[in-house]
User: Fold these one by one.
Assistant:
Number 1:
Amino acid sequence: MKTIEEPIDLHFRGDEKIIALYLVKGDEPALVDCGPSTCLPALRAGLAARGLAVSDLRHLLLTHIHFDHAGAAGVLVRENPELTVHVSAIGLPHLADPARLEASARRVWGDLFDDYWGELAPIPEANLRVAEGSALGLEVVPTPGHARHHVSYLDDEGRCYIGDAAGVRIVPGRFIVPHAPAPDIDVEGWNASLDAIEERRPTALYLPHFGRVDEPEEHVAALRENIARWAERVRGGATEEEFVRAGQQELERESEPEMLRSYAEAAPLAQSFHGFTRYWSRRETSAAPSA
Ligand SMILES: [Zn+2]
């Protein structure tokens, strides 16, 4: 199995370095994540530049079902019925029947939904596989925390397709945003997932947002600190405005100005405020004595 190191840039909303896909090119070409339907022209162009078409793909290894990772999966399967989609057991029913997911997302996104994400097509059960144990020779590691339905993939040479469990770092930017959208954020779960990744001693992390990180230990250590600090900021009573301002200052201090736009698109800071707020309120509810 040979990985193409250079990711396919989906040019999300016309900008560079927001969503990366990694091609695992072996006997059966596979993609890690596929992005949203709005990026299909860029996906096709990226495949063509590597001598492939959608019809050549045989597997999608999905890290999780957020639309920026999995939105186009159903459209791709409709176009290429030989495609097998690997996804966590928790995520699978939502890909088989995305109607409820779409309805609730449309309530949040309103008119912007179609601009950002585009069509979500259902995937026939026959094309879906639960990602557990191993997939195409890669180890599947459950990595909840950013989302309940998150898994990461590791190959036997130590490449880790870590997904959003890595946070958001627009390489060569240095700062790692602990991107924490509602509703699933689970700080303890996220740290346990990072433990699971570290135990496997990956040689490199392949980030969907965006690029390859060659010093996994430093990355994970910094991410843990940032998760803790940002979660604590919300628990300490920061308003959304204060939270966003503090995060923006950290980002601007530690990242090159030309990367800031990609950071903003890939990980809007207000989303993390809402995700951490939800996390703490859930903790309070579960800690409250039952009546
Ligand atoms: Zn995500």
Note: DSSP finds eleven helices and 13 strands in the chain.
Number 2:
Amino acid sequence: MNYEVAHFDPSGRYNERSSIMNVEAIAIYGATGHTGRLMTHELATRGHKLVLAGRNRQSLIELASKVDAEVEVRVADLDDSQALQAVTENTSVVINCAGPFSRSGEAVARASLKSGSHYLDHAAEPLYVKRVFDELQGPAREAGTVVIPGMSFYGATSGMLASLVADGLEQVDNVTIAYYVTGWLMTAASKYTAVKLANSDRLAYANGKLEVVERNAEPEWFEFPAPIGWRQVLANYPAGEVITVPRSIPTSSVDVFMTVKTFQEDGVFTSENLDATERNRSEFTIVAHVRSSGNTRVGHLFGKDIYQVGALIATEAAVRLADGYTGVAGGVFGAAEVFNPEEFIADMQRLNAFETTF
Ligand SMILES: NC(=O)c1ccc[n+]([C@@H]2O[C@H](COP(=O)([O-])OP(=O)(O)OC[C@H]3O[C@@H](n4cnc5c(N)ncnc54)[C@H](OP(=O)(O)O)[C@@H]3O)[C@@H](O)[C@H]2O)c1
């Protein structure tokens, strides 16, 4: 077992080699990646004790020595189940930032459940999200801990927006979520995940049933609010929302679109070595259409820097879970089932993560 502990005080001084963390600590697996570092900063700023975890000892120690918080480093490969178990021990919440999650998610989530820790990740991989609901629902209920796959920009933001738009409706014919994203400079793991998703099977609704389909649908046109206007969109864009949205909105039809141009822009697939400050220029508009009995309700959410928004959303969720706010008993959930979408979105607006119009 490759498990070791290095403990740092808030001034970054190395102290001792045995764990002094207790269950107040929040663990970040994949802490040395772009998203993991953003989350480390956000959680440290809020005064949380942190376990920084991953496979690369040297990067973790370098990161820990720069963090202004009580921090412990725990090193574990995904295939070392004992070491991974030790990563999650004595933590309230484990946030997995080591994508793709089809590779890391189940192992980290199962270790979290065994330790009685809540589990969140940043997955935008629909087949993985479905697997978590299918296979971890029983274990999570039994452990009494909350599991939320896709607690990030893609997944949670649109899911909560759609739930807010659909509020009070007893039956919904269709939910359509459309993303306009420009200036996305992918990290190494985002690029790897995007390429993998482009070549994977998709999930789509047919006659009220979610089915595995083999290919992308043909591009369609979608009208975004002015000044964006009509844009060509990838239909059946791979997104966990097809699984999570019907859990909080009474519908059996969900479509997710993404602007075609997002993946044709300069640098989108060649930016994995950029530094963090160069990555924050992305802009986004998310539209949720909720159709019910011949009427369509619409909500928009727009802002900048999709990575920072993803990190803020996961941070706010982790802090709520660590503080004992679950709103639900143990199980696997979409974000809008665990948190009140109106309150959560209002809090995110207070943090300047995005704006909304309805
Ligand atoms: N849903 C969303 O809106 C959203 C938002 C942000 C990110 N994401 C997803 O989150 C993931 C991480 O993104 P990022 O921007 O942080 O990427 P990144 O900067 O490339 O970092 C990836 C991190 O994962 C670790 N990792 C990768 N493969 C691993 C493995 N097999 N075992 C252990 N650790 C492994 C890396 O560790 P090393 O340093 O040791 O390589 C690194 O710490 C991606 O899949 C991305 O698509 C989703």
Note: DSSP finds eleven helices and 17 strands in the chain.
Number 3:
Amino acid sequence: MNAELRPDVVFDVIVLGAGIAGYTSAIAAAELGRSVLVLEKEEFVGGSTAMSGGFFAFAGTDEQRAQNIGDDDVLLFDDLRNVGGHANDVELVQFYVDRQAAAYRWLRSLGISFSSVTISSGQSVARSHCTDPKRLLNRLEEVVRSGGLAQIHTGCRALELVRDHQGSVAGVTLDGANGRMTLHARGGVVLATGGFSRSPELLDIFAPEQAAAIPYGGLGNSGDGLRMAWLLGAGLRDMGAVTSTFGSHPDTTIAYHELLTAYYLGAIIVNTQGRRFVDESQSYKVLGDACLRQPDAIGYEIYDSVVRRNSKAGVPVSDLELPERRGRTITADTLEDLASKISVPPGPLVSTIDSYNAAVRNERVDEFGRAGLCNGVGDLIEISTPPFHAYPAKPLLSSTFGGLATTKDGQVVDVCGRPIAGLFAAGEVTGGFHGRAYMTGTSLGKGVIFGRAAGNAVARRCTP
Ligand SMILES: Cc1cc2nc3c(=O)[nH]c(=O)nc-3n(C[C@H](O)[C@H](O)[C@H](O)COP(=O)(O)OP(=O)(O)OC[C@H]3O[C@@H](n4cnc5c(N)ncnc54)[C@H](O)[C@@H]3O)c2cc1C
């Protein structure tokens, strides 16, 4: 049970945002004996974390070994740098790599299990470890509350950071059930407020090309933390590297997140003219960008009954049966019928698929250089055995991977690289780690790894 918030009660640490980064920071600070207050703007906790696919990018795990998947820190590091276009901060990438095994073990020690390991965007081997994000959040909340050191208050929106007379961030002004008040923290404040995928204004400034994407992510992810820190002169990293994920049905709503990556199982993607426009084995973020440049920013994932057999029941994004059951997938016995059902000209669709099949048979070079199912891995499959299926999909802006400049300990630095005393950040509100693009599973992963680091660092600033 939470005590009522009162301005005269001073905490050691205030954490803003109750997603994976906020919870992990809070737990780390509480484990060091600090009193922690978690403020959540929405009436419910979880943010984007609760909506996520639950994939974590870990390397060298028991689950990988059980499937004979050879993976290690070196390969993970190289993949991360490659995905990020070598624009990501080496120190942050190395920090993630050095601590990913400990983060994995920590989650396992809390009873979190990973049901599957699949290959996904930006990975040269299968390393997306899937868990149930809601179960994970419940477990983290349990841990936060269990020690009695941390309180979680929902319906409390932080508005502004407060500095002490020496210029250190020492509290926050919030708007909650009892109106506005200012609360103080001895060690400082951790911003774990998520990204800005729900802020039309910030998207218009930093990523105007995303206007046609479906806005998604936690409802509270409107860049509040970013603005609060920006006001204090915080530096920003990778802000222009916002990309959307290709593969969501145009009618996707917050109630049910629908994302299908049939292209990693062997599907191709065509536009409304029945033409392919990209190498489908690339990161779904690259595919999202490519799709935004197509008419109506829509693409159709086209596959046949042979690809259909690659469906992975129960694995989000790879379960082809799920959208079929929801009536999202269009099916026909001939490509011509499929084309007319999705209002695509049949001639171009048939010739696109003929040409693709010829490349699969090595009779010609693929026009977009596709050489595998996902990131060059996996043998391509001809699309020739009926019935044929089409899944209409748009780019979905689920997350923004640019944000505040921090050190590896989550210390926010200003535009000149100087620490802003007392201000820490973790999770999607931060930038620098991903660089130009994102590897599946690294956003939840960074929430845990950098969340723990920020919680430790802010806790060290105060003596209990
Ligand atoms: C549909 C979807 C699928 C995804 N799948 C994956 C995946 O499988 N693997 C992966 O690695 N990543 C995935 N991501 C991205 C990942 O979920 C997020 O990047 C990550 O969960 C962010 O965690 P966070 O703790 O930083 O922010 P969040 O979980 O978004 O939490 C931030 C919280 O801060 C609150 N907040 C905001 N402003 C304030 C304020 N002023 N005061 C108080 N509270 C505030 C918000 O309401 C929110 O609850 C996915 C995202 C989405 C939307």
Note: The mean pLDDT is 95.
